[in-house]
Amino acid sequence: MSGFGDVMSVASEQVRGWALEAGFDAVGIVPIEPMPRAEHFRSWLKKGYHGSMAWIARDPERRCDPGLVMRKARSAIVVGVSYQVEDPPPALWDDPLRGRIARYAWGRDYHKVLPPRLKRLAERLGGSSRVYVDTGPILERELAERAGIGFIGKNTLVLSPSFGSYLLLGVLLTSEALEPDGRSEAKGTCGACTRCQTLCPTRAFPSPYVLDARRCISYLTIEHRGMIEPDLSRLMQRWVFGCDACQEVCPWVKQYRKPSEQHGWLSFDADRCSPRLEEIMAMDQPGFLARFAGTPVIRTKLSGLRRNAAIALGNCGQAEAVRILDAYTADEDPVVRDAVAHSLLELKKRGA
Ligand code: SF4
Ligand code: SF4
Are strands 239-241 and 100-101 parallel, antiparallel or unpaired? Predict the structure, then answer.
């Protein structure tokens, strides 16, 4: 134990050990202080880049200062779980009549997996604490960067030198004043690379380090309710839930492809990762729950997933897609009906 501040009941090295035992791959510790990139966040909000995600815009002052989220907090422990698992078989992933689901959503919902681990860590640590996994007014990525877990790349994600960006983040705010972890100094840079910027299918980066969520396939397929403008939907390829394109092309991800062995809750299963678009179109609520309950996919709801599948069929360029979509031109869901109509037009344009 060394002397940081006036209170330090547990050594940071000990905390790191506990976090690894709890099942986390990456750990970093930072003192609580206002976020240095707060201005960047405020200007992002001002431009409306968060789209309809109103909760992000709520109470930006607290989001920019974890000390306002928990008055007693002295330190933040930032943890990461790698979700780098084996690549899917190309025969399935590249099948034009199958959709694509973002990698983090291939298994159990991480909102259910990470918090119990963080709570175990909090119990061992003592004092008072709060845990956040995407759920509170916390800028996880900024904290992760300060904690040395990685650096924020031009694709706005945390790039860890050990795990790339396929990393689920969680934060534990604690009343314990812990010494910042000296080992957590993993830094890096994008350098001259611009791959994510130029290869994003919907051109969702107005500039490096800035994401216009309103154009991002992750936002459109998951958060956006209702119809999607054809100008955008035509660029969404076959993603039906989320999008990993700006990670798949990133050299930091490619370089550190290290399949995570300890996370059995994430693995490739054709029906969960690359489902047949025809099956999604035919899904009813019980079928949707049977396949996706307990996974992140549930967030988009059946209507959203069927809309996304209709869009993906329009983008696949296959004559078979016309036959599938023809059965849904009078679908009772107007959002699905709209996507079907636009996709049929698109397929016609492409000569399918
Ligand atoms: S997730 Fe997909 S759509 Fe969104 S910024 Fe990355 S590449 Fe673009
Ligand atoms: S693709 Fe290149 S520019 Fe984008 S985040 Fe990765 S290293 Fe940075």
Answer: parallel
Single-letter amino acid, residue 311: I
Q: pTM of whole model > 0.90?
A: yes
In a domain, 21, yes or no: yes
Per-residue pLDDT tens over the stretch 123-137: 999 999 999 998 788
Q: Is 213 helix (H, G, I), strand (E, B) or coil?
A: helix
**Which two structure tokens, joined as six digits, stand for 2?**
């060394």
167-220: pLDDT as tens digits:
999 999 999 999 876 555 557 899 999 999 999 999 999 999 999 999 999 999
Q: How far is the CA of 251 from the centre of ligand 2 (A)?
A: 7
d(CA 179, CA 3): 8
241: β partners: 101
Two structure tokens written together for 236: 């969404």
The neighbour count for residue 176, using CB atoms within 10 Å, is: 24
From the CA of 155, the nearest ligand is 2
Is 154 in the same domain as 213? no
Q: Which atom of ligand 2 is nearest to the CA of 246?
A: 1
State whether 165 and 293 are in the same domain. no
Which residue type is seen at 116?
P
Q: How far is the CA of 237 from the centre of ligand 1 (A)?
A: 11
Q: Residues, the chain, total?
A: 352
Category of 117 on φ-ψ map: left (φ > 0), alpha (ψ -120 to 50) or beta? alpha
Q: For a substitution probing ligand 1, which of 212, 218, 232 has the most ligand atoms within 8 Å of its CB?
A: 218
Residues 208 and 153: beta-carbon distance below 8 Å: no
If asked whether residues 215 and 155 sit together in one domain, one would say no
Where in the sequence is the domain holding 311, given as residue range(s)? 209-246+267-344
**Pair (51, 170) in one structural domain:** yes
Pick the last residue of a domain from 174, 189, 217. Answer: 174
Boundary of a domain, candidates 149, 174, 199: 174
